[in-house]
Input
Amino acid sequence: MKKAIVIGAGFSGLSAAAYLAKNGWAVSVFEKHALPGGRARKFESNGFTFDMGPSWYWMPEVFEAFFNHFGKKTSDYYHLSRLDPSYKVYFKEAQYNIPANYLQLQQLFESIETGAAANLDLFLKEAEYKYFTGIHKLVHKPGLSFLELADMQVIKGVLKLDVFTNIKKHIAKHFKHPYLRSLLEFPVLFLGALPRNTPALYSLMNYADIKLGTWYPRGGMYQVVDAMYKLATELGVQFFFNTEAKKINPLEHNSTLEVTATRQEKVQRINAHAIIASADYHHVDSELLTDQYRNYNPKYWDRKTLAPSCLLYFIGINKKLKNMAHHSLFFDTDFEKHGKEIYQYKSWPEDPLFYVSIPSVNDPTVAPQGCENMLFLVPVAAGLTGDSEALRNRYFDKLCSRFEQVTGNSIKNDICFYRTYSIADFTTDYHALKGNAYGLANTLRQTAILKPSIKSKKMKNLYFAGQLTVPGPGVPPCIISGEVVAKQVIKDFGETWK
Output
């Protein structure tokens, strides 16, 4: 039986481990932390359960397809419900609930701009094509050769995907009102570039948002992690927590690799036929390998455009709030200015946009009775210096003031739990390159085969998965990443995919 080691128990690592186990491999997963999830961990305190990572559940078919491959359904592990409204948006002079019902959304668009309902149809028709071509074709490519794009369907697709048009221009072609433009541009804010530097291909995110909907697993996003972990253990995967990989070395005499890992200050060496690094790609390549086996040099990584980091605030409120949605976007300041502060100037934002998640609006299990569970998130440039608790607190004071002014809900004097998390924590906890939160930016020059390779060029049987390689950042892409790399391992070892 072939042996594999997976480094990291985030979404891509859990996915790769499950697929390899189903294909008859003995799989061991080394995870630095005490529980699975990677950046999607959770913590509990004072009766609150907080998701530390992703809070949006988009592209439900990707999750369902993953579990279906193993003869399971998402409902075997967690209860899923569609949110309505999908989210709420606060602009300077208006606020809107974004309805899950498409006809109601069309009516909302039309009320803001005459003709916008019909234009939304046209926009989403194009986005639908991009979504299904992207999800069912492009994102499942390993990104190892231009020949992967050589079938006619994909070539035809590329011409229709608006890969060489930016999404800002694409949206502006259909809509004039700044509210509608901001609403449709917001998903790319987290993809790692200004809308004018992001391929129009990513209007597929708008299709995912509007047509496929925003969903929520009862108990929080960690329920997905727990489900994938349970599935993997059912398949025989072994997990070693509080175990951090320190070195990867080839064993030339028998074509195997050796991982040196530390667990409770005890050093152990484990051999495997293949290793999948699902931890931070830059960290593995730069720190776990010696110079002769590294895929990329420091200059390569310095040239890369990173998606944002973020300021996170985990807040417990000892009262219930009025008229709040599960997800809220605060666009009551200058969208363009904040975008430039992230991607162009790389500075701490003066007056940032921010996002608030209040899962306790729909799920009483994540907070004590009569309380609210809140997450505040501010996207900021990766690599910023000066990240301190004092700076974080100053920003939170600003956010609280704006939140109270815009929503009419006072919270500052009702906080019973408060924890911050930002660039320094991402660096310490995940070895994240420049403290990024979302991986590489999805720019044209960092798309598909132009991303860091899933295969080591210098060490046989070493592979990479996760948000710094194909297909890219986000929960669904990371789940797909695990599948893509597992397929490549099976192919390289001359086995049949099951």
